[in-house]
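Researcher: Going back to the complex we discussed earlier. I've cleaned up the inputs and rechecked each line, so this should be the final set. Can you rerun the prediction on the complete assembly and write out the structure?
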Amino acid sequence: MAWEEIAHTADVALRVQAANLAGLFEDAAAGMVSLIGGENSPDHPGDQRAFNLTAPDTETLLVDWLTEILVLVEDGFYVEGTEVTVHTDTALEGTVRGRWGAEYSSHIKAVTYNELVVEQSEDGFVTTIVFDV
Amino acid sequence: MIHSIQQLDRISDYVWQIPTSFRKDMNVPARIYATETLMEKATEDRSLEQLVNATTLPGLVGYALAMPDFHQGYGFPVGGVLASRTADGIISPGIVGYDINCGVRVLASNIPLEAAADQIERLNKALFRNCPTGVGRGGGVQLREREFENLLHKGGKWAVKAGYALPQDIDRTESSGRLPFADVSHVSSKAFERGITQLGTLGAGNHFIEVDVIDAIYDEEAAAAMGLELGNLVVQIHTGSRGFGHQVTTDYLREFQSAVKEYGIELVDRQLVCVPFDSSHGRAYYGAMNAAGNFAFMNRQVLAWRVRKTFDEVLKDAIGDTSLHQVYDIAHNIAKVETHEVNGEDVEVVVHRKGATRAFGPGFRELPKEYRDIGQPVLVPGSMGTSSWILAGTATSMSQTFGSSCHGAGRVMSRTQAKKSIRGGELRDELEIQGVSVQAGSLKGLAEEAPAAYKDVDQVVETVHHTGIARQVARLTPVAVVKG
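Model: Rerun complete. Updated structure for the full complex:
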């Protein structure tokens, strides 16, 4: 698992690590969706949504990407997976796959900028994201 | 950083200080209101560091303050209060947070608990059925775009005209349920779309509706003015601006990441992003934030309307008088322009209250006449199985805390730890043995909000009472809880 939940008094934090930037965005989405939990019947039809996003910096791009997914969740979309292609460190194409008609067990209100830094190392990319819940 | 209370200056039994000499970039000192026990707990997370970080912002006056329920948040601690001059200071969407005007409303009944005791379970099930909960958009009042805009601008006036509010509800709401500088032209279409389907919905997380019994009265005069009688039922509604507010903050946090550089403001943490209040950016955010604030007031108003209908539906035949009069409605997350005395002079400031409430004292002109002699009601919800409190604002709060007080118990245990150590089903059984009926959208969510995850609300109230920034009026004990 390329993400882990970090203890936070009031909110929820995720530490995400991946070999490349696209993987970091996909794993961050997977971690966030896992925190939300939820259920969906396989009888509901599958669907997908595509996003082309650009941002002034990588951290904002990450916030934008995860926020788009949160809005889908609010609309009742059950996220089964994502694919991300990174064009530059400030532009991506992302696809979110899943089904409509989800019931969620937890709520994430927003993706914060709390000490948000996407860092590059020899092993790839790492970041810690705090979510407002 | 601060790991021990020995590193703090102790001003009195309940007041602690971090001087500007603590860190070179501090512009004002920080003050914390807490018992020694609460203070020791606070050194275990990063709340003090977050409070110190906020003191580095420009244009601040007085102290960066922490109320006794404070704990680590994002950017700024929950339970924090920060005042900045309107003339040359800042406004920060990151400090106000995403759930703009998350707040609490209390409605009081004339129903003694014993008269309704055998109906509480049925009442709670009906509240859960009639008051939409959960993550999504379902169950909100259907509004046309024009009417939604009207609501965002007019707040309480819209609700009275639309039949969701009694005139007294509005008199007994902070700012009369209408933040006057709301400007929908500064709200994105995405925020508008997220909000228009969510009016009158509770949401999830720490939002709740709770039925309580008044089990102690500490100030007979104030309790009488608020219509609180020992042994009677009251209802608390805790929610905010839902997806509308979340999107407004998300939009402005993003935009201001670039704007802040134009103003030459250096940030210790990007979540503290801010702009000068007296700027086009500042005015735009203030207009949008006030629109979200009005939405939150109206969200609680429509939920109050649903709660009243539910009381009628379940109790009218058996009890007769099921009326619920509003005690008050206050914001927890907001920035407001107010005038406060600083170093002997009246100064217009933007008071940021993040997980803190306004607690204005007697004589405040906005208060309805029945509250002018006793001060503004301050509503302090507990944590499902514990007491909640109704307090009153004081003159001391005006001189010490920019007219602010605590907003609740304040978390002490992480959600991760709560989920590991507490099972939602067992917690529900324990609460029911204790006499608290529980309806919850999610047992996992219930576990995260367990009483053990919160500080001792009685110690929080003891602190504000003994420092004089609010005084005890009545204590509530829960009998039924609806969790989102």
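Model: Worth noting: Helices of chain A lie at 21-36, 58-74.
Researcher: Good, that matches what I expected from the previous run.
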